[in-house]
TrEMBL record:
The active site is at residue 387. The chain crosses the membrane at residues 69-90. The lineage of its organism: Eukaryota, Metazoa, Chordata, Craniata, Vertebrata. It comes from Mustela putorius furo (European domestic ferret). It is an enzyme of class 3 (hydrolase). InterPro entries: Beta_hexosaminidase_sua/sub (IPR025705), GH (IPR017853), Glyco_hydro_20_cat (IPR015883), Hex-like_dom2 (IPR029018), HEX_eukaryotic_N (IPR029019). Residues 87-209 form the Beta-hexosaminidase eukaryotic type N-terminal domain. Residues 1-61 are annotated as: Disordered. There are 3 beta-hexosaminidase isozymes: isozyme A (hexosaminidase A) is a heterodimer composed of one subunit alpha and one subunit beta (chain A and B); isozyme B (hexosaminidase B) is a homodimer of two beta subunits (two chains A and B); isozyme S (hexosaminidase S) is a homodimer of two alpha subunits. The composition of the dimer (isozyme A versus isozyme S) has a significant effect on the substrate specificity of the alpha subunit active site. Its EC number is 3.2.1.52. It catalyses: Hydrolysis of terminal non-reducing N-acetyl-D-hexosamine residues in N-acetyl-beta-D-hexosaminides; a ganglioside GM2 + H2O = a ganglioside GM3 + N-acetyl-beta-D-galactosamine; a ganglioside GM2 (d18:1(4E)) + H2O = a ganglioside GM3 (d18:1(4E)) + N-acetyl-beta-D-galactosamine; N-acetyl-beta-D-galactosaminyl-(1->4)-beta-D-3-sulfogalactosyl-(1->4)-beta-D-glucosyl-(1<->1')-ceramide + H2O = a beta-D-3-sulfogalactosyl-(1->4)-beta-D-glucosyl-(1<->1')-ceramide + N-acetyl-beta-D-galactosamine. GO terms for cellular component: azurophil granule; beta-N-acetylhexosaminidase complex; cytosol; membrane. This is Beta-hexosaminidase. Its main location: other. Keywords: Disulfide bond, Glycoprotein, Glycosidase, Hydrolase, Lipid metabolism, Lysosome, Membrane, Signal, Transmembrane, Transmembrane helix, Zymogen.
Length: 593
C-alpha cells in the first residue's frame, strides 16, 4: 500500500475554522524523514490551511518562508490552538486549528493498523500504549458521560498506529530513524512512522496535545505534524560514582528523557570516588571499590533492567569506563593496576593513573572490556581519556626508563597516547566502536576514522567551537557537551544560555557540520544525588533537548519560555519534581484534592 495511506479509524466532524501552520525552512534533514512524498522533505510551515498541495510546490512554499517574519508569525499563531502551546520539543512542521475533538478514557484506545509491521505482541509499543494511557488518564478522576448527555464536539475513540519497518525486538542505535507523522482531523486519528522509535516519539507528542477542560473532559485539537530530529545523538550523562544513584532514580530519569525525546543515556558508571559496577569477572574491584558492596552497586540484573527500560523508551545506553585517569577506585581490587607514586627515590604510598607500561595492565583491560562488551549491547562504548594527571607518572623511575626506551623524551602525552591506542585496539577487536573525550584528539592519539569525539572543556564558546571545527576538519564525528553542564547552577534563568547554544555555530564546511551528530547534557555528581537530581535536571535539560531536536531557527526565548513553562507544569503533573523557570504557577495547583 502507498506509504501516504491513512485509516478512517476516528469519528468524522464538520469542517472547522481556518488552520494555522508552523514549522521549519527547507534544509535537508539529517536522516530520511517520514513524509511519504516523492523527493526530499523540506519540513517547513504550510502557508494556508486546507488540503496539501503537490510535494514540490509545498517544499517551495516552505523554503520561501525561511528567514521571513511570516515564518515566525505563523510559528506563534500555531500555539493559539489548544495544547500546541505546551509542545516540547517543538516539531519540525505543525498545522493546527481551534477545531477540537472529545476523548473519553473509557472509550479511547491505541490500536495497530492492520497493515502495520508492528502488531499486538510488540513489546515496545504494547508497553507504550499502557504507559501513555496512564500518563493521560490515570491521574485524573473522571466519570463516564451520561448516555443522554449532549456532546458539543465529536469524539475520537482511538489513535491508530502504522509502523512500516519491523523491529519490535531490536535495540535503538545511532542509525535509528525517529521520524513520524501525526494526523488528527475530521477523518483520521493516525500515527505513521517508519520504525517503532518514531512511533514512540509520536506517542509522546500526542500525549502533549491532549488537554482537559475545567469540566473534566479531555480534548485534542485538529492537528497535522510531520517531525524528525535535527541530530541523531541527543544524550544525558549521569554520574553514578561520586554519588550513588538508586536504580529508581535512573529509571525515573529515563522516563523524563523520553518525555523530552532524548535518546542516549550516557552512564558514567565509575570514577575515582567509587566503583559501583558489579563485575562478575573481577568481583574484588566492586567489593573494594564501591561505597558499600551490599547496597551501593549495580548488579547484573540492575544493568539489564536499565538497558531494557531504556530500550522500551527508544533510549540507548552508552556505558563509560574512563581510563587511565579517574581510576582510584579500581586500585584496591586490582593490585598492580595503578602507578605507584614516588617522593624522591622512595614510594610515597600513593597511587596515580593506570600503569601504562605493564603487560598485566593490558591483560586486565582485555579481560575486563570483554565482559563490558558482552554486558552492554550498544555498538559504542565510552572510553573516557580525559584529565590525566602526569605528576605520578613523572615521579616513577620505571616509567621514566620506559619513556627513554620508547623515545618519548619528557612528553608524557606520548605515553598517554601509547596507553589509549593500545586500549582502543583491544576494544576494536571486540567489534565495538568508541566515544572518547576531547583530550584523546588533542593529544594526537591515532584513532579509527569512525571515532566519536566528545567536546567538554568549559572554556568560552570561542574555545569549544574552535575545538568542534578542528575535530570535524580532521574528519571525525563530534558531540558537544561543553556548554551543557547542568550540575553547574547560577542564580537566575540560566536555561536561556543553555537554550541558545547551537552545536553548528563554528566555522566549517557543510561536510564538517554533517559530522556533528549531536550533543549531551551532563550531570556530574559532586553535589548531586537522588535528593536534588530531578529539580536540577528539569526543565533545564529540556533546553538541551529542544536544541538537539528542533529546527535551528526555533530560537525565540519568549516562545520557548511560554512552552517550557507549560511543559514544566506537565512534568509536575506526571510526578517529576521539576524546578520553576521564574515566578508563576501551574493550573493544577488550583485543583482540589
Amino acid at each position: 500500500m502507498p506509504l501516504r495511506a491513512r485509516t478512517a479509524g476516528c469519528a468524522s466532524r464538520p469542517g472547522g475554522p481556518e488552520e494555522h501552520g508552523a514549522g521549519r525552512p527547507g534544509s535537508r534533514p539529517r536522516s530520511r524523514p517520514v513524509t511519504w512524498h516523492a523527493g526530499s522533505h523540506a519540513g517547513a510551515a504550510q502557508l494556508t490551511g486546507g488540503s496539501r498541495g503537490p510535494a514540490g510546490r509545498e517544499r517551495g512554499d516552505r523554503r520561501a518562508m525561511a528567514g521571513s517574519g511570516l515564518w515566525f508569525s505563523l510559528l506563534l499563531a500555531a500555539v493559539l490552538a489548544g495544547r500546541a502551546a505546551a509542545l516540547w520539543p517543538w516539531p519540525q512542521y505543525i498545522q493546527t486549528s481551534e477545531s477540537h475533538y472529545a476523548i473519553f478514557p473509557h472509550n479511547f484506545q491505541f490500536q495497530y493498523h492492520v497493515s502495520s509491521a508492528a502488531q499486538p505482541g510488540c513489546s515496545v509499543l504494547d508497553e507504550a500504549f499502557q504507559r501513555y494511557r496512564d500518563i493521560l488518564f490515570s491521574s485524573h478522576s473522571w466519570q463516564p458521560p451520561e448516555p443522554t448527555r449532549k456532546q458539543h464536539a465529536p469524539e475520537k475513540n482511538s489513535l491508530t498506529i502504522l509502523v512500516v519497518i519491523p523491529g519490535c525486538n531490536q535495540l535503538p542505535s545511532l542509525e535509528s530513524v525517529e521520524n513520524y507523522t501525526l494526523t488528527i482531523n475530521d477523518d483520521h486519528c493516525f500515527l505513521l512512522s517508519e520504525t517503532v522509535w518514531g512511533a514512540l516519539r509520536g506517542l509522546e507528542t500526542f500525549s502533549q496535545l491532549v488537554w482537559r477542560s475545567p469540566e473534566g473532559t479531555f480534548f485534542i485539537n485538529k492537528t497535522e505534524i510531520e517531525d524528525f530530529p535535527r541530530f541523531p545523538h541527543r544524550g544525558l550523562l549521569l554520574d553514578t560514582s561520586r554519588h550513588y544513584l538508586p536504580l529508581t532514580s535512573i529509571l525515573d530519569t529515563l522516563d523524563v528523557m523520553a518525555y523530552n525525546k532524548l535518546n542516549v543515556f550516557h552512564w558514567h558508571l565509575v570514577d575515582d570516588s567509587s566503583f559501583p559496577y558489579d563485575s562478575f569477572t573481577f568481583p574484588e574491584i566492586t567489593r573494594k571499590g564501591s561505597y558499600n558492596p551490599a547496597t551501593h552497586i549495580y548488579t547484573a540484573q540492575d544493568v539489564k533492567e536499565v538497558i531494557e527500560y531504556a530500550r522500551l523508551r527508544g533510549i540507548r545506553v552508552l556505558a563509560e569506563f574512563d581510563t587511565p585517569g579517574h581510576t582510584q577506585s579500581w586500585g584496591p581490587g586490582v593490585p598492580g593496576l595503578l602507578t605507584p607514586c614516588y617522593s624522591g627515590s622512595h614510594p610515597s604510598g600513593t597511587f596515580g593513573p593506570v600503569n601504562p607500561i605493564l603487560n598485566s595492565t593490558y591483560e586486565f583491560m582485555s579481560t575486563f572490556f570483554l565482559e563490558v562488551s558482552s554486558v552492554f549491547p550498544d555498538f559504542y562504548l565510552h572510553l573516557g581519556g580525559d584529565e590525566v594527571d602526569f605528576t605520578c607518572w613523572k615521579s616513577n623511575p620505571d616509567i621514566q626508563a620506559f619513556m627513554k626506551k620508547q623515545g618519548f623524551g619528557n612528553d608524557f602525552k606520548q605515553l598517554e597516547s601509547f596507553y589509549i591506542q593500545t586500549l582502543l585496539n583491544i576494544v576494536s577487536a571486540y567489534g565495538k566502536g568508541y566515544v572518547v573525550w576531547q583530550e584523546v584528539f588533542d593529544n594526537n592519539v591515532k584513532v579509527r576514522p569512525d571515532t566519536v569525539i566528545q567536546v567538554w572543556r568549559e572554556e568560552t564558546p570561542v574555545h569549544y567551537m574552535k575545538e568542534m571545527e578542528l575535530i570535524t576538519k580532521a574528519g571525525f564525528r563530534a558531540l558537544l557537551s561543553a556548554p551543557w553542564y547542568l550540575n553547574h547552577i547560577t542564580y537566575g534563568p540560566d536555561w536561556s544560555e543553555i537554550y541558545m547554544v547551537d552545536p553548528l555555530e563554528f566555522k566549517g564546511s557543510p561536510q564538517q557540520k554533517a559530522l556533528v551528530i549531536g550533543g549531551e547534557a551532563c550531570m556530574w555528581g559532586e553535589y548531586v544525588d537522588s535528593t536534588n537530581l530531578a529539580p536540577r535536571l528539569w526543565p533545564r535539560g529540556g533546553a538541551v533537548a529542544e536544541r538537539l531536536w528542533s529546527n535551528e531557527l526555533v530560537t525565540s526565548l519568549d516562545f520557548a519560555f511560554k512552552r517550557l513553562t507549560r511543559f514544566r507544569c506537565e512534568l509536575l503533573r506526571r510526578g517529576v519534581q521539576a524546578q520553576p523557570l521564574n515566578v508563576g504557577y501551574c493550573e493544577q495547583e488550583f485543583e482540589q484534592t
